[in-house]
Amino acid sequence: MPDFLLDPDVVFLNHGSFGACPRQVFDEYQRWQRELERQPVRFLQRELPGLLADARLQVAHYLGARPTEIVFVPNPTFAANEIARSLPMGPGDEVLMTDHEYGACRFAFQFAAQQKGFRVVEQAIPLPVESNEAIVDTFWQGVTEHTKLIFISQITSPTALTLPVAQICQRAKEAGILTMVDGAHAPGQIDVHLGDLGADFYTATCHKWLCAPKGSGIFYVREDRQSLVEPLVVGWGWGPNKTFHRENEFLEHHEWLGTYDPAAYLAVPAAIAWQKKTMTDEVRHRSQDLARAAVAMAAEIEGIERVHPDSFFRQMGLIDVTAKYVDADMLKSRLYDEYRIEAPVVRWKDRIFVRVSTHAYTRQDHIETLVRALQEI
What we know:
- With 377 residues, this protein is an alpha/beta fold.
- Helix content is 42%, strand content 15%.
- It is globular, with a radius of gyration of 21 Å.
- It starts with 10 loop residues before the first strand and ends with a helix.
- Residues 28-368 form the Aminotransferase class V domain.
- Keywords: Aminotransferase, Pyridoxal phosphate, Transferase.
- GO terms for molecular function: transaminase activity.
- This is Aminotransferase class V-fold PLP-dependent enzyme.
């Protein structure tokens, strides 16, 4: 399988969970690890500040933000916890999200709500959706005078739905409501320009669709909102004897949280370079076509239904198998054990979906294998 290290004996249709790292990017990741081990003190104390600054600059350029607005974090769950615990919210305040949000991030806000007394409101977005305008109007029904923060995914994890977050952020700005966008599935799958998006806070993984090493993510906080954010982990960057001596407190608080392996962060620019060279419009459109083919072909099986019109999903498609009364765990196990297909089977409310993720390495025969397996099961 060119470029990727994936097992060629597995039909890998689950890029959306953890991504897959191209060989060139993984080599760069290991190169940074070797550099660290050659002289750890020199690397961590003297070289790392400049290396992180350069990596942030490249990420900021790629995502349309200022370098002082972005820090590296392990994943969006980390960033969601930081916002949930930082913002001055208490009894009478509300955080509004959809009922399509990623479980770990939802739990972060629910946990903080128990500690601080605010309320988490989940506004239902019924499927199938009809239009972006209908999504915005339906979501806005959950807004009240108590809404202090909107937390919403750019592309939802359980339902692979692309949401009109720019419109929601604009409407929230007009209403004086803060916004945080979970872009875990966005960079690398769709174009992202944070300056145009209008969110106050944004987080994303780099190890999913951007194809960077595991454990690399970004946390964006608009410069005029950085005073609202407290560090989730207090380390040397907080006290008077700072490690990196940044003028920007947001960067200082996040760039030295204790000893860690920064290689995944430093390899993100290599992933961006690989994206620009390899994931051309032609390759991305081909991947989208394969996802849409999987949905269309599966829908020809009696009892299996489509969920979204093509315009609402990209390289992740949903196959609704609810009417087949299948057990989700059994289906996932059989797909892998009998057919060597790695694809998530998602429980969402009272429905069961097979989520299909396609990428540059996906082939037509992979899709045919999945459809044949669903027919037989």
